[in-house]
Amino acid sequence: MSVTAYAPASTGNVSLGFDILGLALKPIDGSLLGDRVTVVQEQESFSLTNAGRFAHKLPTDATQNIVYDCFLGFKDALADLGIDVRPVEMVLEKNLPIGSGLGSSASSIVAALAALNGFYGNPLNQEQLLRLMGKLEGQISGSIHYDNVAPCYLGGLQLMVESDEQISLSLPVFDDWYWVICYSGASVSTAAARDILPKEYDRATTINFGRQLAVFVDALHRKDKVLAAQMMQDVIAEPYRKSLLQNFDAGRAFAQEQGALAFGISGSGPTVFAAVESLDAAEEIKQWLVDNYIQNEDGFAHVCQVDGQGTQVSEDV
């Protein structure tokens, strides 16, 4: 029996929730915007095959791949439960570009651990698995944070709690909003994107950040689209990170002309997003970004909606 897990792309921050909000996304055309990992079988030594559009960006040494680290982390977690895990054959279908701001590392980690857990009969519950996912994500970014792994695994819009009892809360979403995302083809590491940010923020900025987040969450629960959209302004990262993104201000101006509710940086960038109510406007914004924001053959754009399902696991007997 082999087990395959698909983990969707996600956008961290969603402009107003730095390290606190994350949203899972799916293209409306049905294409896969996320990584897939298959655990094929047990064998004498670990092996990993890379496939997918961005497989050529991955290290050729399997032990340098985050999927191998996931195997080791899962093996250790099950050893604590008295369960022996033998080496396995795995396949990573890498559909998300590295350093894109779409939760690429989170997608690989979530898919790998979900597939391993399914292959061994789900010995870890949802909370245990999510905490292990966050730990592995921390190895990539330098610190444990869940704003990509939580929506990638659980789906929807997640608000990070990170208490001893619970990692995140699922928030209401507007199902009729479209989310245009565009990856330029450039690569921005999470660590580099964090280095450009100030080490400290003034009181006015932190008050504004807290106010926006609180009002946004309240507006979601009251289904107030106008107020929710008004709060989607990034006072923490965008003023500094947008200098790294070519044509960002022009993209925002065009999106606003088409009636976009919000325009911002997805995660650490360079992917940008626009939230739109009209599908026609979403397609117009997508085309402008294709023509003016994409820099090379690696770039792409999609019109998406919220992926409410999150990670999907299937078995092939």
Automatic annotation (TrEMBL):
One GO MF term attached to the UniProt entry: homoserine kinase activity
Gene Ontology BP terms: threonine biosynthetic process
Catalytic activity, as annotated: L-homoserine + ATP = O-phospho-L-homoserine + ADP + H(+)
InterPro entries documented for this protein: GHMP_kinase_C_dom (IPR013750), GHMP_kinase_C_sf (IPR036554), GHMP_kinase_N_dom (IPR006204), GHMP_knse_ATP-bd_CS (IPR006203), Homoserine_kinase (IPR000870), Ribosomal_Su5_D2-typ_SF (IPR020568), Ribsml_uS5_D2-typ_fold_subgr (IPR014721)
Main location class: cytoplasm
Residues that, per the record, bind ATP: 97-107
Keyword Cytoplasm: yes
Ranges in coiled-coil conformation: none
Entry function: Catalyzes the ATP-dependent phosphorylation of L-homoserine to L-homoserine phosphate.
PANTHER family: HOMOSERINE KINASE, HOMOSERINE/4-DIPHOSPHOCYTIDYL-2-C-METHYL-D-ERYTHRITOL KINASE
Matching HAMAP family: Homoser_kinase
Protein name: Homoserine kinase
Organism: Catenovulum agarivorans DS-2
Lineage summary: Bacteria, Pseudomonadati, Pseudomonadota, Gammaproteobacteria, Alteromonadales
Gene label: thrB
